[in-house]
């Protein structure tokens, strides 16, 4: 008779092989590229035109001259003759 031994568990299914080495640590990544230079800012707006200046004050009226004093300085006799003509 044939020997039907099903006890042929010769399969070595030992899952106890935890002797795996950890892999090497990965290389450090490359340094990133430097960013692009920013755009130049827009030119500022032109300033507003200044206000027109105020009009100057009117000058004071001059003092009235002394009639008699003026007559003496400018030869009053001749002037009086011219005025009476």
Note down, in words, how this protein is organized.
The chain has 85 residues and is mostly helical. Helices cover 19% and strands 0% of the residues.
Describe what is shown at a glance.
The protein has 85 residues and is an all-alpha fold.
Structural class assignment: mainly alpha
Main beta-sheet annotation: none
State the end-to-end CA separation: 183 Å
Strand content: under 5%
Residue-averaged pLDDT, rounded?
76
Radius of gyration from CA coordinates: 60 Å
State the helix count: 2
The succession of helices and strands, N to C, reads: HH
Pfam families: Collagen
Properties at a glance:
single chain; mainly alpha; rod-shaped; 2 helices; 85 residues
Spell out the blueprint of helices and strands.
Blueprint: H1 67-73, H2 76-84
Helix pairs in contact: 1-2
């Amino acid at each position: 008779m044939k020997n039907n031994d099903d006890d042929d568990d010769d399969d070595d299914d030992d899952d106890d092989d935890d002797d795996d080495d950890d892999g090497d640590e990965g290389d450090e990544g490359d340094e990133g590229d430097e960013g692009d230079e920013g755009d130049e800012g827009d030119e500022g707006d032109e300033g507003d035109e200044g206000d027109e200046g105020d009009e100057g004050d009117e000058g004071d009226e001059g003092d009235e001259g002394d009639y008699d004093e003026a007559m003496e300085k400018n030869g009053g006799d001749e002037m009086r003759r011219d005025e009476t003509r």
